[in-house]
């Protein structure tokens, strides 16, 4: 009996030991139970509320029974030794400004007073960035791209300012893979050529600490935005604006060239390159055209048709002697003694030249030459004393007005023999009619005067 | 008992005479802590007051010398500013020295005397600006 009882006891124990489920512990008997996986994770968020930071912890196994379990952080705190995290369902957290942010802290899972599991963590190395917000996408037609902008809350924080962003986009339909773009600023562009035409895209953004001292994890994704790409342009088509402008510009240039060619000689060249004035033409323009039938000539032959009459009978010799061989015009008193008067009438009264005797210098108007271009009109004819044919006392011969001769002092050409002049009479050279001595003298005088004048001219 | 008492007195005397040598500190780590944390605390404490408003008299020539002065100015109360060692930047300075200066003792905080009890804001601000000036010298000084 005794042996049988012992056998049954041994078998019973063996059955109990073998048939029991693994980890099946009795109440209160935790030593035989397989320990629960109390592994956990934690992350911190800096300055979530002013100067207060947030520490969040949770178990890796979501099915774990968290009853009576709590988290505690000790060390690397400002004015306290340990802090206990608050529990919200399966998440443990604490919001405080007591984090030293220097050195490591010890975070333990506690069941009562017993530490189930602990981890050494530095708060500054488990920082989780805050998610960006206000994600916007704008289509820029001129640049053919999409401008993406968003707000990063870390820009306003004190400790962690530098973070890296990750923009992800994909077509809303089809479930294709996300396209990622990394950037450090809060704006970027997506070229239109990289996108499908006329399609709706979904886009989102997140951040991660990018700092030598603060390290950690990606933030949550921002709320997604959508944008639509425009319809594709026709193949071979083009923007109608640019070709139109080009064609109009070319046409305008062509028109300008033609106008310039047509108007070059008449309008443009005289303004751009004025011609030098032609003296001859300018002179003709300045001078008035003589009237028709106006015979202004001192050629004796042109006076063949003129009727010249003697005004008075004047002794030519006395008249000649009265003229002194000097440059000064004879004084009116001296001329008055002569009592001579000579008047030359031309066929054309418009160019009348009168050679008045001394007597007439006072009575009559002085020598008047109405022709404009007569520079020697102001001086009356003078008798030259250098005439080789004139000798004192030789009064038989008519006086020769050498000064009035064109070749006075200059024997380049043959000197025509002066004809005796008669005051008041102008005799053409071609007409050598016998006349009286006084009349001949007067004629010669007039002829010499006019011819010399003509030569001087 | 007599022996223990003697040893205690001797320890206090030694502590008073001997000062810590900051030559063995990890200056790179201390620099990182200052740039990312202590600097923001100091400037936040000055609350936008103009830095040039205060007289900056103290200066230092080397990093160990600068740390010695920084420790002296930061962790010791002064008349008119007894709360200085309790400020956040003071705690963090101490933590930086403890964590990156081998053998640095975690000295007990000196309680201010009754004369130091009254807080004067300008004195605290002046002291804070002095500490900031010492940190600038620390950053520019050779090791």
UniProtKB/TrEMBL annotation, chain A:
<dbReference type="GO" id="GO:0000902">
    <property type="term" value="P:cell morphogenesis"/>
</dbReference>
<dbReference type="GO" id="GO:0008361">
    <property type="term" value="P:regulation of cell size"/>
</dbReference>
<feature type="region of interest" description="Disordered">
    <location>
        <begin position="328"/>
        <end position="359"/>
    </location>
</feature>
<dbReference type="GO" id="GO:0001913">
    <property type="term" value="P:T cell mediated cytotoxicity"/>
</dbReference>
<dbReference type="GO" id="GO:0046427">
    <property type="term" value="P:positive regulation of receptor signaling pathway via JAK-STAT"/>
</dbReference>
<dbReference type="Pfam" id="PF18447">
    <property type="entry name" value="FN3_7"/>
</dbReference>
<feature type="domain" description="Fibronectin type-III">
    <location>
        <begin position="131"/>
        <end position="232"/>
    </location>
</feature>
<feature type="region of interest" description="Disordered">
    <location>
        <begin position="380"/>
        <end position="423"/>
    </location>
</feature>
<keyword id="KW-0472">Membrane</keyword>
<keyword id="KW-0675">Receptor</keyword>
<dbReference type="GO" id="GO:0008284">
    <property type="term" value="P:positive regulation of cell population proliferation"/>
</dbReference>
<keyword id="KW-0832">Ubl conjugation</keyword>
<dbReference type="GO" id="GO:0005654">
    <property type="term" value="C:nucleoplasm"/>
</dbReference>
<keyword id="KW-0325">Glycoprotein</keyword>
<dbReference type="InterPro" id="IPR040997">
    <property type="entry name" value="FN3_7"/>
</dbReference>
<dbReference type="InterPro" id="IPR013783">
    <property type="entry name" value="Ig-like_fold"/>
</dbReference>
<comment type="subunit">
    <text>The IL7 receptor is a heterodimer of IL7R and IL2RG. The TSLP receptor is a heterodimer of CRLF2 and IL7R. Interacts with CD53.</text>
</comment>
<feature type="signal peptide">
    <location>
        <begin position="1"/>
        <end position="20"/>
    </location>
</feature>
<dbReference type="InterPro" id="IPR003531">
    <property type="entry name" value="Hempt_rcpt_S_F1_CS"/>
</dbReference>
<keyword id="KW-0732">Signal</keyword>
<dbReference type="GO" id="GO:0033077">
    <property type="term" value="P:T cell differentiation in thymus"/>
</dbReference>
<keyword id="KW-0812">Transmembrane</keyword>
TrEMBL record, chain B:
<dbReference type="GO" id="GO:0005615">
    <property type="term" value="C:extracellular space"/>
</dbReference>
<dbReference type="GO" id="GO:0061844">
    <property type="term" value="P:antimicrobial humoral immune response mediated by antimicrobial peptide"/>
</dbReference>
<dbReference type="GO" id="GO:0005125">
    <property type="term" value="F:cytokine activity"/>
</dbReference>
<dbReference type="GO" id="GO:0032733">
    <property type="term" value="P:positive regulation of interleukin-10 production"/>
</dbReference>
<dbReference type="Pfam" id="PF15216">
    <property type="entry name" value="TSLP"/>
</dbReference>
<dbReference type="GO" id="GO:0001961">
    <property type="term" value="P:positive regulation of cytokine-mediated signaling pathway"/>
</dbReference>
<protein>
    <submittedName>
        <fullName>Thymic stromal lymphopoietin</fullName>
    </submittedName>
</protein>
<dbReference type="InterPro" id="IPR038329">
    <property type="entry name" value="TSLP_sf"/>
</dbReference>
<dbReference type="GO" id="GO:0032755">
    <property type="term" value="P:positive regulation of interleukin-6 production"/>
</dbReference>
<feature type="signal peptide">
    <location>
        <begin position="1"/>
        <end position="19"/>
    </location>
</feature>
<keyword id="KW-0732">Signal</keyword>
<dbReference type="GO" id="GO:0032722">
    <property type="term" value="P:positive regulation of chemokine production"/>
</dbReference>
<dbReference type="InterPro" id="IPR029189">
    <property type="entry name" value="TSLP"/>
</dbReference>
<dbReference type="GO" id="GO:0050729">
    <property type="term" value="P:positive regulation of inflammatory response"/>
</dbReference>
<dbReference type="GO" id="GO:0032754">
    <property type="term" value="P:positive regulation of interleukin-5 production"/>
</dbReference>
<dbReference type="GO" id="GO:0032736">
    <property type="term" value="P:positive regulation of interleukin-13 production"/>
</dbReference>
<dbReference type="GO" id="GO:0005139">
    <property type="term" value="F:interleukin-7 receptor binding"/>
</dbReference>
């Amino acid at each position: 009996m005794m042996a049988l009882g012992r056998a049954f006891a041994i078998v019973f124990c063996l059955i109990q030991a073998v048939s029991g489920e693994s980890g099946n512990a009795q109440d209160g008997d935790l030593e035989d139970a397989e320990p629960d996986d109390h592994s956990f994770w934690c992350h911190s968020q800096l300055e979530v509320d002013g100067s207060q930071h947030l520490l969040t912890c949770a178990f890796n196994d979501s099915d774990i029974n968290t009853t009576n379990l709590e988290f505690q952080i000790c060390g690397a705190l400002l004015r306290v030794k340990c802090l206990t995290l608050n529990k919200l369902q399966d998440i443990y957290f604490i919001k405080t400004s007591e984090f030293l942010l220097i050195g490591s802290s010890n975070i333990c899972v506690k069941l009562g007073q017993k530490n189930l599991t602990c981890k050494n963590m530095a708060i500054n190395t488990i920082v989780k960035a805050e998610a960006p917000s206000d994600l916007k996408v704008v289509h820029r037609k001129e640049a053919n791209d999409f401008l993406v902008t968003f707000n990063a809350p870390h820009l306003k924080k004190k400790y962690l300012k530098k973070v890296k962003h990750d923009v992800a986009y994909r077509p809303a339909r089809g479930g294709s893979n996300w396209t990622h773009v990394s950037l450090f600023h809060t704006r970027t562009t997506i070229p239109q050529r990289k996108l499908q035409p006329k399609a709706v895209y979904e886009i989102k953004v997140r951040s991660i600490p990018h700092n030598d001292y603060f390290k950690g994890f990606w933030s949550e994704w921002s709320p997604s935005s959508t944008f639509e790409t425009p319809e594709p342009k026709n193949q071979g088509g083009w923007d109608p604006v640019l070709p139109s402008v080009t064609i109009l510009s070319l046409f305008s240039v062509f028109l300008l060239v033609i106008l310039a060619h047509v108007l070059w000689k008449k309008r443009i060249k005289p303004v751009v390159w004025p011609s030098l004035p032609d003296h001859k033409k300018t002179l003709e323009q300045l001078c008035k055209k003589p009237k028709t039938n106006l015979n202004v000539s001192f050629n004796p032959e042109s006076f063949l048709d003129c009727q010249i009459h003697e005004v008075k009978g004047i002794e030519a010799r006395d008249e000649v002697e009265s003229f002194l061989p000097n440059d000064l015009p004879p004084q009116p008193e001296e001329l008055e003694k002569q009592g001579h008067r000579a008047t030359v009438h031309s066929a054309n009264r418009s160019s009348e030249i009168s050679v008045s005797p001394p007597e007439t210098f006072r009575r009559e108007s002085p020598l008047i030459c109405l022709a404009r271009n007569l520079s020697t009109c102001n001086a009356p004819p003078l008798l030259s004393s250098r005439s080789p044919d004139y000798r004192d006392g030789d009064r038989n011969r008519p006086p020769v007005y050498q000064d009035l001769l064109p070749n006075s002092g200059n024997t380049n050409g043959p000197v025509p023999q002066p004809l005796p002049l008669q005051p008041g009479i102008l005799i053409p050279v071609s007409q050598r009619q016998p006349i009286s001595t006084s009349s001949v003298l007067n004629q010669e005088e007039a002829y010499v005067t006019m011819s010399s004048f003509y030569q001087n001219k | 008992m007599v022996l223990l008492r003697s040893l205690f007195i001797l320890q206090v005397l030694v502590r008073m005479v001997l000062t810590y040598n900051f030559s063995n500190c990890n200056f790179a780590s201390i620099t990182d802590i200052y740039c990312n944390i202590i600097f923001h605390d100091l400037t936040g404490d000055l609350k936008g007051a103009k830095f040039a408003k205060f007289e900056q008299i103290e200066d230092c020539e080397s990093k160990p010398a600068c740390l010695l002065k920084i420790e002296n100015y930061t962790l010791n109360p002064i008349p008119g500013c007894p709360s200085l060692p309790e400020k956040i930047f003071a705690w963090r300075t101490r933590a930086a020295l403890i964590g990156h200066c081998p053998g640095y003792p975690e000295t007990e905080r000196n309680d201010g005397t009754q004369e130091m009890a009254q807080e004067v804001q300008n004195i605290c601000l002046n002291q804070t600006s002095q500490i900031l000036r010492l940190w600038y010298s620390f950053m520019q000084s050779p090791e």
